[in-house]
Amino acid sequence: MNFGLTNKLFVRIIVLSMFAYGLPVVTNMVGITEYAGMTYSAEKKKRRTPALRQRVYAQLSQAQKLADEKKTQEGIEILQKMENRIDELNSYESAMVYNFKAFIHYGESHMNQAINSFKKVIEQKPIPEALEKSTLYALAQLSMQQEKFDDSIMYINRWSTLNEGSDANSESLLANAFYAKKDYKKSLKHIDKAISLAKGSGKNPNENILILKRATHYELKQPKKVTEVSEDLVRLYPKPKYWIELGNMYGEIGAEEKQLAVMEAAYQQGFVTEAKELKSLAQLYYLNGAPYKAGQLMGKALKEEKLESNVKNLDFLAQAWMVAKEFDKAIPVLKEAAKLSSDGNAYARLAEVFVNMERWHETIQYGEKAFAKGELKHPGNVSIALGMAHFNLKNFDESNHHFANAKGHNKVKKMAEQWMKYVSKEKNKWAQLEASLKSSEVL
To answer: Which of 21, 102, 185, 234 is most deeply buried (CB count within 10 A of its CB)?
Structure first.
């Protein structure tokens, strides 16, 4: 028998098929030495396995050729004929028939048939340890795909026993299975072991295991732990979404300064592009005492049409400019908002802006528009603004009228009463001054 060809077929079926179908790949194939019609490997336990005979090899090779030519049904027919006389084959040959049949079924997305064939592989005794391990691992993965999580756990545990220990990948598979079963504490145990094994071999933890760890801590309601994992993701796999998620987690645990720093760094790198994220960053600027930056960001996003020019966004932009004392920038924004709004609140804020700028005629103009359009959130504030404007224009009676209206609103009642007293005093002073001037004219 040509051992080189036999070993080549064995490797091709096990290894290349696994690459093709995304299954685990066993690369530590063991050497096999023929002896008296039997073979034994250099494996630790000296497992003895029968040889793969030439005629069986030829049939498997023919099935392989047909599968490579996309003639899978013809390949299956050859394998089925071999299975029909399975009693004539030794354990190794039988396992190879079922193994190759399993891979063809997998390639055709016949998952149940693939699993059944793989199960038959490990029923054959004895078979090479490498083949048994690769089959157990494949069964663990396929069981996960079929949401048979207990089966997946059972197969990977059998693999670990045969392997005399787990590795980062097998621990990750267990972690995913327990997560799917909602057993988050057990999942976390295997996640941490997978990470430890990876670090022990000088590698960074796999990106997916960190994502799973973050999700598991989230399910266990451990926001600080979620934040720590998010930090690792940004450090090891600095994708835009991880920067955004880290910023959100800093906000969740009340670390607003870190949240702002991360989000600002993400924005400078071009990672903050979505409307929700842009507005969130603007709000962070505003809440952290940087209203000018908030206004700049909102204005740019609106101009570039990354944010919708609706009343809510325009209102926030105007508020940022007002707090930043950039009243000239707030005015056109509020005028635009007033056109879109069904109520008079944008006009009300315009009146407040003009009060701050001591532009009394415009305060009156927009204060009256606010009341005319109606549905005001804070009508008392508008009455105060109108009262102040009329007072400064020496319209004392009109001023008192608006302050009297303001008295009807509890939030500004005290202020209105103080203003009314002040207006009365000033009105009397002006009356006395006018009388004095008239007396002087007579004399």
So the answer is: 102
Q: Is position 128 within any domain? A: yes
Structure tokens at 319: 């508020």
Whether residue 21 lies inside any domain: the answer is yes
**Global confidence as pTM:** 0.76
Full residue range of the structural domain in which residue 435 is found:
369-443
Beta bridge partners of residue 34, listed in sequence order: 39
Last residue of a domain, one of 155, 183, 211: 155
Q: Which pair of tokens denotes residue 23?
A: 């299954």
Q: Tell me, what CATH number does 117's domain have?
A: 1.25.40.10
pLDDT digits (tens, 9 = 90+) for 368-404: 999 999 999 999 999 999 999 999 999 999 999 999 9
| Nearest CA-CA partner of 118 in 12, 18, 7 | 18
Task: Evaluate whether 249 touches 227 at the Cβ level (below 8 Å).
Answer: yes
In whole angstroms, give the CA distance from residue 379 to residue 412: 10
Is 12 within 8 Å of 18 (Cβ atoms)? no
C-alpha 433/C-alpha 63 separation (Å) is 115
pLDDT in tens, 96-107: 999 999 988 898
With respect to residue 243, please indicate whether it lies within any of the assigned structural domains.
no
Q: CA–CA separation, 183 vs 62, rounded Å? A: 47
The set of residues, in sequence order, having a beta carbon less than 8 Å from that of 24 and lying 6+ positions away, is 18, 134, 137, 138, 141, 169
Q: In whole angstroms, give the CA distance from residue 351 to residue 322.
A: 12
Q: Which residues of 147-166 are buried (b: 16+ CB within 10 A; e: fewer)?
A: ebbebbbbbbebbbeeeeeb
Tell me how far apart the alpha carbons of residues 334 and 353 are, in angstroms, rounded to a whole number. 10
According to DSSP, the β-strands at 48-50 and 38-41 are antiparallel
Number of domain units in the chain: 2
**8 A C-beta contact, residue 416 and residue 384:** yes
Model confidence pLDDT, tens digit, residues 175-194: 999 999 999 999 999 999 99
| DSSP-based helix, strand, coil % in the chain, nearest 5 | 75, 0, 25
Q: Does 74 map to a domain? A: yes
**Contact (Cβ atoms closer than 8 angstroms) between residue 50 and residue 87:** no
Is the bond leading into 205 cis (omega within 30 degrees of zero)?
A: no
Residue 39: which of 171, 131, 134, 137 has the closest Cα?
Answer: 131
Largest interatomic CA distance in the chain: 146
Give CA–CA dist 12/178, Å, rounded: 33
Are the CB atoms for 315 and 323 separated by under 8 Å?
A: no
How far is C-alpha 327 from the geometric centre of its chain's CA atoms?
38
Decide which of 155, 180, 209 is a domain's last residue: 155
